[in-house]
TrEMBL record:
Pfam families on file: ThiF
UniProt cross-references to Gene3D superfamilies, sorted A to Z: NAD(P)-binding Rossmann-like Domain (3.40.50.720)
Source taxon at top rank: Bacteria
GO biological-process terms attached to the record: cyclic threonylcarbamoyladenosine biosynthetic process
Lineage of source species: Bacteria, Bacillati, Bacillota, Tissierellia, Tissierellales
Matches recorded under InterPro entries: ThiF/MoeB/HesA, ThiF_fam2, ThiF_NAD_FAD-bd, Ubiquitin-activating_enz
All residue ranges annotated as the THIF-type NAD/FAD binding fold domain in the record: 15-197
Biological source species: Anaerococcus prevotii ACS-065-V-Col13
Gene Ontology MF terms: tRNA threonylcarbamoyladenosine dehydratase; ubiquitin-like modifier activating enzyme activity
PANTHER family in UniProt: THIF PROTEIN (PTHR43267:SF3), TRNA THREONYLCARBAMOYLADENOSINE DEHYDRATASE (PTHR43267)
Designated name of the protein: Thiamine biosynthesis protein ThiF
Name of the gene encoding the protein in the UniProt record: thiF
Length: 201
């Protein structure tokens, strides 16, 4: 089944992606869409981390529907991926990411995607991973409103890749077309790192 689903992709890249693993920290507007994108690409193992439940205000941009309301975001994301493309191994961790568990989380994979809404969570993850040479972190910053593509920049700080416009704030509103662009770029750069054509430095 996997070969049939991925037949429009390069078979050599499919093999590389099958053996890869990625951790996604947060399963909201960024993370729920990133997880599905990476699974559709063929990433073999995905670890999901979030403690939140699905709310009505999530439905405008997050990969959930009304049947998911009140349910765990990580468990529902895992369910949706398995219903769509059952070849990926998904580990759903319903936990609050903090300094108390980042050491344990960081042992699971070498590639991490930050997908939180709150600035303090973004800062926590950035500060934790910055300078860890054996880890790669992809982080989104500035993804609110209805920005233009020319506003989006890719910044590299040591082992961290930052994607966004770096200026917009949630007060400008959160809209799927713009959030989705950032989510797709975060997923794209994860695939590039896995493939070895981008070192994240």
């Amino acid at each position: 089944m996997r070969d049939k689903i991925l037949k429009r992709q390069d078979p050599h890249v499919n093999k590389i992606l099958k053996d890869a693993s990625v951790s996604i920290l947060g399963c909201g507007g960024l993370g729920s869409n990133i997880a599905m994108s990476l699974a559709r690409c063929g990433v073999g193992t995905i670890y999901l981390y979030d403690f939140d439940k699905v709310e009505y205000s999530n439905l405008n941009r997050q990969n959930y529907d009304q049947d998911d309301l009140g349910k765990s975001k990580v468990l529902q994301t895992k369910k949706k991926i398995h219903e769509t493309i059952p070849y990926s191994k998904i580990y759903a961790n319903e936990v609050y990411v903090s300094l108390d568990n980042l050491d344990e989380i960081s042992e699971k994979t070498d590639i991490f995607i930050e997908a939180f809404d709150k600035k303090e969570m973004k800062s926590l993850v950035f500060e934790y991973f910055l300078g860890k040479k054996d880890k790669k972190l992809i982080i989104g910053s500035g993804l609110s409103g209805l920005g233009d593509l020319e506003d989006i920049k890719i910044k590299k700080i040591d082992n961290v890749t930052m994607i966004g416009d770096f200026t917009s704030s949630p007060e400008s509103g959160l809209y799927l077309p713009y959030v989705g662009v950032i989510a797709s770029l975060e997923a794209l750069y994860a695939v590039k790192i896995i493939k070895g054509e981008y070192d994240g430095k």
